[in-house]
Structures are given as structure tokens and as C-alpha cells.
Protein: Uracil phosphoribosyltransferase
Organism: [Clostridium] leptum DSM 753
Amino acid sequence: MENQVFVMDHPLIQHKLTFLRSKDTGSKEFRELVSEIGMLMCYEATRDLPLEDARIETPIGPATTKVIAGRKMAFIPILRAGLGMVDGVLALVPAAKVGHIGLYRDPKTLKPVEYYSKLPSDITERDVIVLDPMLATGGSAIDAIGIIKRSHPKSIKFMCIIAAPEGMKAFTEAHPDVPVYCAAMDKRLNDHGYIVPGLGDAGDRIFGTL
């Protein structure tokens, strides 16, 4: 797990995370914070993108500079909470395509149930980052990655804001080849499968359906 899980302790991320957790933060500000944190995390998660030389003309003269080396990317949010991170990551990589995977958690079994899947048609040519604010039991993320793997993308990363140790353990055991980026590793899950201290239900707080 050591070389697979990256917990981002950047001061801006941690500062925004404090307000994201607060029960006094309303839906509008919560949505903005999720998007902003997603953008900051994407900056770190794409740090290993390869570069190549490019020749350009500045107003002063010719220059050899760097561009990303032909990589095509796709962001795939897990519905519905993952949608909250899309605008932030697209602000950094506007040419990326966006797929969607719909999973909901059965309230009795806490297991994920798939109800929708739409991936880019050229996913085999793309590096994928899967988005979901919370990694709780890990069930939804594990299933989503399994669905995506069947389409054989070039690479897969998973990006969440808050994770529980139980979910992280389950995820890394199920997909030891998928790097995970998160902003915080919390204490545990409660009896209802919520992360403690967490931030409540991310989907409800994003869309105001509390």
C-alpha cells in the first residue's frame, strides 16, 4: 500500500478540507470546495505525465519548450457525488473526455449496484482518472475500476477526497495496480458505513438533498 496510496498534505488542500467537513457549510460553498479540491488534487495526480520538446516563437524569438507528450486523458466520475469533482479537473485538462459510471449503495447490504455505464469510445487510447469524493467501504470504487478495466484503458488512477482505512485496504487488495490519491485518511467507518469524522453524505451535500 505504501507505494500505491498518496495522501496529499498540501496546505491549500487541507485548508479547504476543513471548511468542506464543517456541518455549517451550505451546498453552494460545498460544491465550490469539492471542485477546487478536485482541481488541486488533479495537479498532483498528473505530476508524472511525460513531456516532450516543442518549438515555438515568442515575441522575442524562437524557443524550445515543453508540452505533454501526446497523452489523452479521460475523467470518469462515479455517480452521483463524483460529478462534483468534474469541473475542477476539466479546468486543468479541458481536452479530456468524460465518462460516467452509475453505482448506488444498497442500504441493507452496503454493496454497490451498477445502474449506468458510459465510457469514451477510444478509452483504450486514454489514461483514466476515476473520481469519487469518498472511499468508504471501497465497494463502489472497486466495482467501478473493475468495469473500466474490462475496456482496457492505457492506465487507471483513482482520486478521492476522504478515505477510510477499511475502504483503502479493500481497494488496494482488489486493485494493487491502481494508484490512489486522497486528501485525508480518516479514523474508521461507523455501523452505517459512513466515514468518521468524514463530512456526511457527499452526494447529498453537493446537490442539497439532505
The mean pLDDT is 93. The domain at 5-207 is CATH 3.40.50.2020 (Rossmann fold). The two ends are 34 Å apart (CA to CA). The chain has one domain: 5-207.
